[in-house]
Amino acid sequence: MKSLPKAELHLHLEGAAPPAFIAGLARQKKIDIARVFDERGDYAFDDFPHFLEVYEAATSVLKTPEDYARLVTAVAGELAEQGVVYAETFLSPDFCGGGDVSAWRDYVAAMQEAALAAEAQGGPILRGVVTCIRHFGPDRARRAALCAAETMGDFITGYGIAGNEMMGRPKDFAWSFDLAREAGLGLTAHAGEWGGPVSVREAVEDLRVTRIGHGVRAIEDLALVDRLAEDGIVLEVCPGSNIALGLYPRWDRHPICQLWERGVKVTVSTDDPPFFHTTLSDEYDRLAQAFGWDEEVLAGLNRVAAEAAFCDAPTRERVLARLGGTG
Ligand SMILES: [Zn+2]
Questions:
Q1: 178-198 per-residue burial string, b: 16 or more CB within 10 A, e: under 16
Q2: Strand order in the sheet with 156-162
Q3: What EC number is given for this enzyme (predicted)?
Q4: Is 6-17+62-318 a domain of CATH 3.20.20.140?
Q5: Nearest to 310 by CA among 166, 198, 209, 163
Q6: Domains of the chain, residue spans
């Protein structure tokens, strides 16, 4: 499914780092992280706690704005290979300047320049969604929201929350989301991955987001599913990630098809693709196999993603035009 033009809404920039890129950066900086790779040079981990450990070690080599600019270039190259024409990447001021607004500006400038250069060379259109880290708590989330509001523009277009879903409650972060909303940023929140349907309901009600990262466990409460459908809440579904982390045992047991059949606006993304040994093309191939979804269905999901994208109207038109191109 590589040739099908695609749009992706849920991609953690650090989590999309190709292993060869991270290994190269580690060599340059003389940091020994050999333990995070298997003999073929892929990221290797046994279970969820080990995944977090490997993820942290791998991304610890990313430090300066220049490192992040090079990362954007590397990720844009990978996305272009998968036929991705538009992608939103999650970026965290906590990892880029420690939540300091002026340091964050330098990172944003470097990443935006790299994103524009990649696009000029035929790569995907890239936008950044600032994410606070839930387990760092509401105070650091406020700083992340301030960083997002201060740098909102052609590149930074959204605000969201990632991190450990089991820590705290969505309403603890309402202040940050209010600030981001007033600044004009699009809003999304991770929920309904490790947390149950209640976490999805609270994210919608207390944070007033238009999109949910994952949200798949809404399926455990059909009244909630119907509400998501009625309200037009968009789910950023990452099936390969859910299966790799053991949320569902097999592709044909993943609830994305049920959610779609019940009228929920679902989209498909990869989360942290090289860590889960997946690509967006692989996800599409697996969905086609598991549910018999043809290119028309998959192209429809991409249009939903374009409509839900955190970008301005002219960009949305460009994305829709690119999606409507050669399939
Ligand atoms: Zn995620």
A1: ebbbebebbbbbbbbbebebb
A2: 6-12, 84-91, 125-133, 156-162, 186-191, 211-214, 234-237, 265-268
A3: 3.5.4.4
A4: yes
A5: 209
A6: 6-17+62-318
Report CA(163)–ligand 1 centroid distance (Å): 8
**Beta strand ranges found along 163-240 (DSSP E):** 186-191, 211-214, 234-237
Element (H, E) at 259: helix 256-261
74 within 8 A of 80, measured Cβ to Cβ: no
Distance of CA 227 to the CA centre of its chain: 23
Site of tokens 């098809």: 257
pTM: 0.96
Give the integer Cα–Cα distance in Å for 131 and 129: 6
Expressed in angstroms and rounded, the spacing between residue 12 Cα and the centre of ligand 1 is 6
Q: Classify residue 64 by its DSSP letter.
A: S
Question: How far apart are the CA of 190 and the centre of ligand 1, in A?
Answer: 7
The per-residue pLDDT for range 216-253, each reduced to its tens digit, is 999 999 999 999 999 999 999 999 999 999 999 999 99
Phi, psi of 159 (to 5 degrees): -140, 145
Burial zone of 49 (CB within 10 Å; 0-12 exposed, 13-18 middle, 19+ buried): exposed
Residue-level pLDDT at 46:
87
Q: What is the distance between the alpha carbons of residues 201 and 191, in angstroms, rounded to a whole number?
A: 9
Residues 6+ apart with CB under 8 A from 151: 104, 105, 108, 130
Residue 88 is among the residues annotated as catalytic for this protein: no
Distance 2 CA to ligand 1 centre (A): 22
Which one is catalytic: 8, 14, 78, 193?
A: 193
